[in-house]
Amino acid sequence: MEKTILKSKRLILKTLDENSAAEVLAYYQRNKDEINQGYMTEAIKTAVDYAFKELKLHRIEANIMPKNKASLKVVEKLGFINEGISKKYLKINGSWEDHIHMVLLNEELE
C-alpha cells in the first residue's frame, strides 16, 4: 500500500510499502512558466535531504531517458553519478526506452 511521506506544491514522495522506506516514488509537476527557474533542483534537493536525513536511505537512484537533458542536468547538479545505461528499461507509450541510471549515495552512512 502506498503512503505519502512528503508533499509540496511541486513534489510528492510516496513509499511503495508503508513499512519500508526502501523504495520511494517521486512525482513532480511543472508548467511551461517554471522551466529553467531552478524549482525542480530545489524540490529534488529537498527530497534527497529528507530521504537521507529522515528516512536514513543509503542510496537514491534516478532512471532518466537519455533525451531528457533537463532532468539529467538537475540530478547532475545535485551530485548524482552515471552508473550506466539500462537498455529497454521501461515501456513508455508502447515502446521500450533506454534509461541512464543515475545514483547518489548517502556518504554520512558510509
Average of the residue pLDDT scores: 79
Tell me the β content.
over 45%
Unreliable runs: 20-24
In the sheet with the most strands, the strands line up as 1-2-3
> Tell me about the biggest sheet?
3 strands, antiparallel
Continuous helix count? 2
Span of the ends, CA to CA: 30 Å
Shape: globular
Structural class: alpha+beta
Helix content: 10-25%
Task: Give the radius of gyration.
Answer: 14 Å
How many strands appear in the DSSP assignment? 6
Order of helices and strands: EEEHEHEE
Features:
22% helix; 110 residues; 3-stranded antiparallel β-sheet; alpha+beta; single chain; 45% strand; 6 strands
Notes on the protein architecture:
This protein is of the alpha+beta class and 110 residues long. It is built from 2 helices and 6 strands; from the N terminus they run βββαβαββ. The chain has a 3-stranded antiparallel beta sheet with strand order 1-2-3, covered by helices on one side. A hairpin with a 3-residue loop joins β1 (3-7) and β2 (11-17). It starts with a strand and ends in a 5-residue tail after the last strand.
Write the layout of secondary structure elements.
Blueprint: E1 3-7, E2 11-17, E3 20-28, H1 39-53, E4 59-64, H2 69-77, E5 81-92, E6 95-105
Antiparallel strand pairs: 1-2, 2-3, 4-6, 5-6
Q: TL;DR?
A:
With 110 residues, the chain is of the alpha+beta class. It has 2 helices and 6 strands; from the N terminus they run E-E-E-H-E-H-E-E.
